[in-house]
Design goal:
The complex is a heterodimer of chains A (375) and B (441).
Chain A (H helix, E strand, L loop, with lengths): L9 E4 L1 H12 L3 E4 L6 H10 L6 E4 L3 H13 L4 E5 L1 H17 L3 E7 L18 H4 L8 E3 L4 H18 L2 E7 H5 L1 E5 L57 H16 L2 H4 L2 E4 L6 E5 L3 H14 L4 E6 L1 E3 L3 H7 L5 E6 L6 H8 L3 E6 L8 H8 L1
Parallel strand pairs in A: 2-3, 2-4, 4-5, 5-7, 6-7, 10-11, 10-13, 13-14
Antiparallel strand pairs in A: 1-8, 6-12, 9-11
Helix pairs in contact in A: 1-2, 1-6, 3-4, 10-13
Chain B lengths: L25 H14 L7 E5 L14 E4 L5 H11 L4 E7 H6 L1 H10 L4 E6 L2 E2 L5 E2 L23 H7 L4 E6 L5 H10 L4 E6 L6 H5 L3 H10 L5 E5 L5 H9 L25 E8 L4 H13 L4 E7 L8 E9 L13 E4 L2 H13 L5 E4 L11 E4 L14 H13 L4 H10 L3 H15 L1
Helix pairs in contact in B: 1-6, 10-12, 10-13, 12-14, 13-14
Bound molecules: thiamine diphosphate, iron/sulfur cluster and magnesium ion.
Chain lengths: 375, 441
């Protein structure tokens, strides 16, 4: 029998719907994408929904065109988003660099599927966790958020728009086939609708500034105020191409510092610590489901174990991880790849034991597999 | 009312001299563009010059307009985004013949969309910036640094390509044309997609290795079947205008938002229950699972369903794992279902790991063809032929799940009936539910 006295207010939705709602509530007015399973649902919903808020959605002739249109639209003042899966991220690669270099706010959803190459279109994986971080030339930072449920798919999409505006950079929402397509009952009050994300804008003057090095200048938009420039080449504050070493260094250090110096504004984890726990499970994305369930089950059996779900994968939430590892001897890291994020955890874990639970056969890691690793 | 007066600008050029080699055709083309913008009396702040990569890609820095200097071949895509997001802007793309190769698909697509931008191709028949390699437009036999014995590829006819694919204004000419500024102005004034294929001389490379001259240029065009002049001029609807017109009625209508499902029943679960349907794609397995979840939610339960099927949606297997639970549950895989329904041979092929893991407390409902299962679970064979009416393939999932609910009773069957009656295909679904309940006996 239900013990709840209040009548529940639940709906039955998937992560795709939550991402689309999150984007539109955040103020997204431009979407371009190219069909690919399991991300097509976002494209189709955007085509249907975004005109309702006066925005534009377009199916590009390929992924390169799609992200290119987003970058152009963003410079005309739109808040832009695109969505794809691994093969499409591969085609985005060069343009991700352009977004970094031109300091364009852009939300990129990667609905992961099993790779490499065409891999398994309808098969879950978490193989892009390093790829999205290092997916363009140069090694400059991007921000990557990873939801682990439908409500988080909403809230982290909104957060992605906030961070994209705050830092004028591409922000990834890293999800996967299961999170995007699994229908779940969710409490509608668990993710209250937000009111749009603001863009800091100015209507005159140079398009860029990096003084101090970590400061992010308000954006210009085409057609407002006087003319201004944009370039993907190494440039000065006016977006004129330069080879002056002082200016080159200042720009490139700025692209790093604006994110690295402000890690504390980006760090996001869902921490659930048990007093006296010697073991902690560190997970992200879809795998967090089994991790949460395994931890809950072990606790009912009297086992003290802590749990940490990383929501901001990049930059690595080092402060939160270091805090979480206090008093910990063993760290269990389940993920649907052969240990791609574990290597980051190992670096921070110092001499603690780090145990991977890994799967690349298209199945989800089970509760039992994680429980076994904890024990 | 405020009156905005725009003082006409006498030049759109900055004071900086062009960076091109002596005799390079790019400079004169840019001078004609400057004249065209003066003629049109444009506001430099409302013009965006989108440049590609190459010597041609250096162009934007010499104008006082706004500029977007992006990646090689992709200039048309940025221009499209800029124009769609702000149709009031005058957007001009400057690309080399190199851009028509690496970004050829974008050019064709922009033509097909008829997006209101103007593309000027500085076509010097080779890659200037990278050292005189052959491009898509290098003539057959042309000597370049990558075709030392003569080009073996047929040159791309840019104008024909965009012309047959919907461009509104298509012109071929050369940097020496006396009326080029007028052509540019006409193209920019055109609401739709305009392409101007302007041949010019790369004095550093193509001219030197092919003894190519101004005099030979027009003859060459003709000899390769590429007529100069205004080749297409049509009035078709520009894309961003068309898009806004087509969607006007939608603007302001409500965006999909959360609608709580009414709860009118009480469930009887004290722990999560997992149900797996193993069937065939195209058999509405996922919809059946969804209706059972909705019945659960109507009874105050939580639910989640994970579906697995091949990429060919309408053939092969379709397996749906469904949890219904008294408390909120994180997303996890079903390893040992409480209930398994095998409703086709495709499904049977995927069901092995499930029934092998099940034990005596668990229930399997299966079709007669797959009644001998290596399992500890209780197996109930349901023969669809024993139903009073033939069960359509697309109802099998719901019939078997309804039978399972009738046997296990996690929540009132009326909640399932209500869920089945609330959505699309209500009649068919209600019939499937009743059939399943009857077959459960
Ligand atoms: C993706 C990519 N590949 C290759 C290059 C190198 N590249 C720079 S310019 C150029 C060719 C430019 O030729 P064209 O467009 O004809 O311009 P031109 O220099 O002749 O004016 C190439 C291949 C690049 N910048 N980006
Ligand atoms: S290399 Fe060719 S295209 Fe480039 S500036 Fe020199 S002449 Fe012009
Ligand atoms: Mg060229």
């Amino acid at each position: 029998m239900t013990t709840n006295t209040e009548v529940p207010r639940r709906e039955y939705v998937d992560g795709t719907t939550a991402i689309v709602r999150g984007a539109i509530d955040a103020g997204c007015t431009f979407f371009a994408g190219y069909p690919i399973t399991p991300a097509s649902g976002i494209l189709m919903a955007m085509m249907r929904e975004i005109p309702k808020v006066g925005g534009i959605a377009i199916q590009g002739e390929d992924e390169i065109a799609s992200i290119g249109m987003c970058l152009g639209a963003a410079m005309s003042g739109a808040k832009a988003m695109t969505a794809t899966s691994g093969p499409g991220i591969s085609l985005y690669s060069e343009s991700i660099g352009l977004a970094i270099m031109g300091e364009v706010p852009l939300v990129i959803v990667d609905v992961q599927r099993l790779g490499p190459a065409t891999g398994g279109a309808t098969t879950v994986a978490q193989g892009d966790v390093q790829f999205v971080r290092w997916g363009t030339a140069g090694g400059y930072p991007v921000i990557v958020l990873a939801p682990s449920s439908v409500p988080e798919s909403y809230s982290l999409t909104v957060k992605a728009f906030e961070l994209a505006e705050r830092f004028r950079c591409p922000v990834f929402v890293l999800t996967d086939k299961e999170l995007a397509m699994t229908l779940s009952a969710v409490d509608v009050d668990e993710y209250p609708a937000v009111d749009g994300v603001e863009r800091a804008e100015k209507h005159e003057g140079l398009p860029y500034s990096w003084d101090p090095v970590d400061a992010v200048d308000p954006m210009r938009r085409y057609g407002e105020g006087d003319a201004f420039r944009f370039t993907g080449s190494t440039h000065d504050e006016g977006a004129y191409i330069t080879k002056n070493a002082t200016k080159v260094g200042a720009l490139n250090e700025h692209l790093i510092a604006k994110i690295e110096v402000h890690r504390d504004e980006i760090e996001m984890v869902d921490a659930d610590f048990a007093p006296d726990a010697g073991t902690i499970v560190v997970s992200y994305g879809v795998t967090a489901g089994a991790a949460r369930a395994a931890v809950a089950r072990l606790r009912t059996q009297g086992v003290a174990v802590s749990n940490l779900v990383v929501q901001s994968l990049w930059p690595i939430p080092e402060t939160a991880l270091n805090d979480a590892f206090e008093g910990i001897e063993r760290i269990v890291v389940p993920e649907l790849n052969m240990g791609l994020y574990r290597r980051e955890i190992e670096r921070i874990a110092a001499d603690r034991e780090v145990i991977g639970v890994n799967r690349i056969d298209g199945g989800l890691i089970t509760i039992d597999e994680i429980m076994e690793a904890i024990r | 009312m405020s009156v905005i007066t725009i003082t006409p600008v006498s030049t759109f050029r900055t004071d900086d001299p062009y960076p091109f080699c002596p005799g390079c055709g790019h400079g004169p083309i840019l001078d004609r563009l400057n004249e065209a913008m003066i003629k049109l009396n444009l506001d430099p702040a409302k013009v965006v010059i989108v440049s590609d990569i190459g010597c041609s890609g250096l162009s934007d820095q010499y104008f006082i307009t706004s500029a977007f200097h992006g990646l090689h071949g992709r200039s048309t895509t940025y221009a499209t985004g800029i124009k769609l997001a702000n149709p009031d802007l005058e957007v001009v793309v400057i690309m080399g013949d190199g851009g028509t190769g690496i970004g050829g698909t974008h050019l064709v697509s922009a033509a097909r969309r008829n997006v209101g931008i103007t593309v000027i191709v500085m076509n010097n028949l080779n890659f200037g910036m990278t050292g005189g390699q052959h491009s898509t437009t290098t003539p057959e036999g042309g000597i370049t640094s990558t075709t030392p014995l003569g080009n073996l590829e047929h040159p791309l006819d840019i104008c024909a390509t965009v012309g047959v694919n919907g461009a509104a204004y298509v012109y071929r000419g050369s940097s020496f044309d006396s009326d080029l500024a007028d052509r540019f102005a006409a193209a920019m004034a055109k609401p739709g997609f305009a392409v101007l294929d302007i041949w010019d001389l790369c004095t550093a490379y193509y001219v030197r290795s092919n003894k190519f001259t101004r005099a030979g240029m027009e003859d060459s065009m003709r000899s390769w079947g590429m007529e100069p002049g205004l080749l297409y001029d049509r009035d078709s609807v520009e894309y961003s205008t068309g898009y806004r017109l087509a969607h006007a009625a939608l603007v302001g209508t409500p965006v999909m938002s959360a609608h709580p499902i009414p709860v009118g029943y009480a469930h009887s679960l004290d722990r999560p229950m997992s149900l797996v349907v193993a069937g065939s794609a195209g058999g509405k397995v996922r919809s059946a699972s969804r209706l059972v979840a909705l019945g659960g939610i109507r009874s105050g339960l939580w639910a989640a369903q994970r579906d697995d099927y091949p990429v060919t949606v309408k053939s092969g297997h379709s397996v749906s794992e469904l949890w219904i639970a008294p408390g909120e549950m994180p997303l996890t895989a079903v390893t040992r279902p409480d209930v398994l329904a095998i409703i086709s041979s495709d499904g049977y092929g995927k069901a092995g790991p499930y029934f092998a893991a099940m034990n005596s407390a668990d229930l399997i409902l299966t079709i007669p063809e797959h009644s001998h299962l290596e399992t500890k679970a209780r197996v109930v064979v349901i023969d669809p032929k024993s139903a009073p009416k033939r069960i359509p393939k697309t109802s099998m999932g719901l019939v078997y799940l309804s039978a399972a609910l009738a046997i296990r009773n996690p929540y009132p069957l009326d909640a399932l009936r209500e869920a089945a009656g609330a959505g699309s295909f209500a009649e068919v679904n209600i019939e499937a539910v009743e059939t399943g309940i009857d077959l459960a006996g």
